[in-house]
Design a protein that fits this description.
- By secondary structure, the protein is an all-alpha fold.
- It has 2 domains: 90 residues, no CATH class; 146 residues, Alpha Horseshoe (Leucine-rich Repeat Variant).
- It contains 15 helices and no strands.
- The mean pLDDT is 97.
Amino acid sequence: MNSVVERIRRELKANADEKTRQSIQRFFKEQVKSYGVKTDIVHKIAKKHWSEVKLLDKKGIFQICEELYRSGIIEEAFVPAFWLPNMAEKFEPEDLATFRAWIEKYIDNWAECDVLCNHTVGDLIEKYPETVSELKKWAKSENHWLKRAAAVSLIIPAKRGEFLKDVFEISDILLQDKYDMVQKGYGWLLKEASRKRQKEVFEYVLRNKKRMPRTALRYAIELMPKELKTEAMKKA
């Protein structure tokens, strides 16, 4: 197991570039640990080693993923996020506790949060819809990234107009959160839900616009026609 992690780390270091590292940092308010490797190269490295890692059982794969997350380096966190959607058929409801633990212990920026949650956590929720209740518990956490995760894990199905009741319930919980990355997270969720369910999302925004932070509001209405945006922003 360690040999795979060591090889991945050697290849990431071999592709490190200071200019890229500085460019990556510009996307974050917080200081991010990074080698300075472009995302497409990280993806190629992950894909190369997946051919070996996928032969392990789920426990072994999760152990390697956790070892990579533990480093706190953004490119290493991207590797398991690229792998895990390939094994979604093996996910079980109890795996959600593992994903929660990784977010609480290791995730410290929006990119690591989103790349794990949009697909891996989202895939599990879609496979076991009853587990969506866990996301509402995440939304009540003290951990900023777990709260953002509660929203962004439903991005993909929300685009298709699914889980709308849960989209609104999670948004209700997060509605007045003070952290901008949480506001942007549930605002993004509402925006994606509006692709198929514009009327319902617009009505939700109108009901809540006096309490909704402007950051979340602007995200939520981004895809709507100009006249709806104007109405939503009026005296908001």
